[in-house]
TrEMBL record:
It holds the Pfam family tRNA_anti_2. GO terms for molecular function: exodeoxyribonuclease VII activity; nucleic acid binding. The keyword Phosphoprotein does not apply. This is Exodeoxyribonuclease 7 large subunit. NCBIfam families: xseA. Its main location: cytoplasm. Belongs to the XseA family. Its EC number is 3.1.11.6. It is found in: Cytoplasm. GO terms for cellular component: cytoplasm; exodeoxyribonuclease VII complex.
């Protein structure tokens, strides 16, 4: 806490003793969070009120300590003068006497530090195995059918959990699996209770498990740091919510569980969160449904009003229809008259155009006679030209006819395969040949070859 300072030019601020001690206490509590201190107990006093007062000292210093009755009852440890302890407390100041002191929250024997070391080693081992991996965490159902509670029947945590469910989800069936949560063998008993859930879940319609216990010292919570409990949590077929101790307490079970709650009551709230939220959502849906229904009713009323305005007596509807029919009849007669007049005008116009374009053969007869004479002359010239061209082609074809060449004394010589011979070397001596003449042919045999030398 910041202490206000007066400006240099104003008179110094004067505090009462009460204000001084209050500011000192607030400053101490703000500057120092709860911490662990080790020392020897002395001047131990058990007050009739149940509070315990003592001094914690070492070889060079000492500090007054107060252990309030509510915490002393849960301590589970008998304090003796001369005992070496480690205590966790909040540094404060007793304003009435101005005594600087520790408000003790928990106490453990000085040798209990090995429990924390064991906790750290086990946490590292299980974490390395992937037991705490987020990918193995199972989601808690939004609307569970039933809840299994693993705790002691005498635990205050059970009452808190039941009260929370009664307030938030009174319809939800709860099944208690009683087990000790502190002392020798508690860890194995807790693990056995968790293993029983696999057989109970199908028949009792269980969907989630609550593992709960109130706060305490590290020794009180040690059962939840047991390896068998952590492995039983992971074997459990249902998601497990762990609510052990207070917000500052962490156990191995917290890390192994599918969901950690800071307190047993918070564990119950997490398990019933869906039903609790559904109540609010249901109220919103109810209000929305009422508004939607009201809108529908209002719209229906408007439609009814419009229909009522349009609703008339059948006699009036018939009279209106007759009037409409008469109007349509008059409009149809007028439209047919206009259409008939338009067609008559079109017919007269077309008749005039047809009369203007009627053919006059006598006027075109001289022109037709002249065209006929020109056509006959042109056809005569074309026929004469075609006859001359045809005679020339016939003479040329006759000149190229092989028969005409043979008639002039030439012949065609073929080998025995019918191929025409053009070179004497193509017919070896002794080969059979045929000679085609103008009239008939001669079969012969080659007796000699007379070749003519090639000339360039």
């Amino acid at each position: 806490m910041e202490i206000p300072l007066t400006p240099p030019d104003s008179p110094p601020m004067t505090l009462s003793v009460s204000e001084l001690n209050r500011l000192a206490r607030e400053t101490l509590e703000t500057a120092f969070p709860p911490l662990w201190v080790r020392g020897e107990l002395s001047n131990l006093t058990h007050a009739p009120s149940g509070h315990v007062y003592f001094t914690l000292k070492d070889a060079a210093a000492q500090v007054r300590c107060t252990l309030w009755r509510s915490r002393a009852q849960r301590l589970g440890l008998t304090l003796r003068a001369g005992m070496q302890v480690e205590l966790r407390g909040q540094l404060t100041l007793y304003e009435a006497r101005g005594d600087y002191q520790l408000s003790v929250e928990s106490v453990r024997e000085a040798g209990v530090g090995h429990l924390f070391d064991a906790f750290v080693r086990l946490k590292a081992k299980l974490d390395a195995e992937g037991l705490f991996s987020a990918e193995h965490k199972r989601p808690v159902p939004t609307y569970p059918r039933g809840v299994a509670i693993v705790t002691s029947p005498q635990a205050a945590a059970l009452k808190d959990v039941c009260a929370s469910f009664a307030r938030r989800a009174p319809h939800l069936p709860l099944l208690l699996l009683p087990t000790p949560v502190q002392g020798d063998g508690a860890g194995a008993r807790i693990a056995a209770a968790l293993d029983r859930i696999a057989a109970l879940a199908p028949t009792r319609a269980l969907d989630v498990v609550l593992l709960v216990r109130g706060g305490g010292s590290i020794e009180d919570l040690w059962a939840f740091n047991d390896e068998v409990v952590a492995r039983a949590i992971r074997r459990c077929p249902l998601p497990v919510i762990c609510g052990v101790g207070h917000e500052t307490d962490f156990t191995i079970a917290d890390f192994a569980a599918d969901l950690r709650a800071p307190t047993p009551t918070a564990a119950a709230e997490l398990a019933s969160a869906g039903f609790h939220a559904a109540a609010g959502e249901l109220a919103q849906l109810h209000a929305g449904l009422r508004r939607a229904l009201q809108r529908r009713i209002d719209a229906a009323h408007q439609r009814l009003d419009r229909v009522a305005v349009r609703l008339t007596h059948p006699r009036q509807r018939l009279a209106s229809s007759r009037e409409t029919l008469r109007n349509l009849e008059r409009r149809l007669a007028l439209a047919m008259d206009r259409h008939r007049q338009r067609l008559a005008q079109q017919c007269a116009h077309l008749a005039a155009r047809l009369g203007a374009r009627r053919p006059a053969p006598a006027r075109y007869r001289p022109e037709l006679i002249a065209l006929q004479a020109a056509l006959q002359r042109g056809m005569g010239r074309q026929l004469a030209q075609r006859h001359q061209h045809l005679d020339a082609l016939a003479a040329h074809l006759t000149h190229l006819n092989p028969e005409a060449v043979l008639a002039r004394g030439y012949s065609i010589t073929r080998d025995d395969g019918g191929r025409i011979l053009r070179d004497a070397t193509a017919a070896p001596v002794g080969a059979a040949i045929s000679v085609q003449l103008h009239r008939g042919s001669i079969d012969a045999q080659v007796t000699a070859q007379n070749t003519t030398p090639e000339t360039d």
